[in-house]
Amino acid sequence: MRCKLLLLGLMVSGCKAAAGTDTDAALDAAADETAADAVDVAPDVSPAGWQVQVKVSTGVSLLYSQGIARLPGGWAFSAKAGLWRTDDQFTQLVEVVSPVPKALLDQGYGHIGDIDLAGSKLYAALEQSDFSVGKQTVAWFDPQTLAFQGSQELPQHENPCLCIDEATMIAYTPDHYHGTDIRRYDVNTNWAALAPLTLSRQLDAMQGVDVANGALWFSCDDAVHGLYRADLKTGETLQIGTIGRLNPIGTTLPEVEGIDASQTANGFLHVLTNEPLQATSWVDDFLVTGP
């Protein structure tokens, strides 16, 4: 969640975290206003040959408000200023409320975005709020203890989410929260910048991204709470479904967060949605079939 609602979640739990103000708050507010006009049940937008449906929805801690990643035997979650590890039943095993070291916090990196496991490291998108500077950071953590292990500065404007293809060790991350430019880096070559992947359509409010089966899979907090697939070779981008949860509570919509693309008994795509006024977050497991 790139917004103010995380502080509410931290206050509910009694955790102490440093407050911050994102410069994109106005964009988030505008997206929320647009989404509030959406119908209660999103229409079927899946293109021919695609079918996306929820198999299981599980309520989890409100603190899990940013990213999600599949781990062996469980899950990892992120919030703006925290990391957690759970077992398969979402029982919390490890909590680190302030995993980012002071040296990076002093540079403004107080925002942890979506996360991804690759090899023996849990990678996290770190973002500082002056997007005109043209630099952001990725950090990596021990997936069991969630201890900080290292970081790398990236030449890009924003950094809401990040994923890594384990087969190639190429990292993918949007250059902007709303846009078509997906930055690519060779992790094994000191994060050398590669030619970007250009999406065939603009995606708005990109909150999560993962890579699997020759494609990038996006969860977006846009007006339809869309699920999107982008071909790794061509950049062709399709909306394959919707995350749903478009019913506002008062004037506040649930906020779509991170995504994980891993085949489990409950489905292939796993999306985190934060619903602070119901004091919970949701993990929705989607069955996905397509051409």
How many structural domains in the coordinates?
1
Structural class: mainly beta
**What would you say the CATH architecture is?**
Beta Barrel
| Assembly form of the protein | single chain
* Amount of helix: under 10%
- The general outline is globular
Radius of gyration: 17 Å
What's the total number of strands?
20
Compute the separation of the termini in Å: 32 Å
Low-confidence stretches: 3-44
Main CATH class: Mainly Beta
Strand fraction equals: over 45%
Largest sheet, if any? 4 strands, antiparallel
SSE succession: HHEEEEEHEEEEEEEEEEEEEEE
Total of DSSP H or I helical runs spanning 4+ residues: 3
Average residue-wise pLDDT: 87
- In CATH, the topology is named Lipocalin
In spatial order, strands of the major sheet run 1-20-19-18
Which features does this protein show?
20 strands; 3 helices; Lipocalin
Please describe the topology of this protein.
Blueprint: H1 5-13, H2 25-36, E1 51-60, E2 67-71, E3 74-79, E4 82-87, E5 92-96, H3 102-105, E6 111-118, E7 121-127, E8 136-141, E9 148-154, E10 163-165, E11 170-174, E12 179-186, E13 192-203, E14 206-212, E15 215-220, E16 226-231, E17 237-242, E18 255-264, E19 267-275, E20 280-289
Antiparallel strand pairs: 1-20, 2-3, 3-4, 4-5, 6-7, 7-8, 8-9, 10-11, 11-12, 12-13, 14-15, 15-16, 16-17, 18-19, 19-20
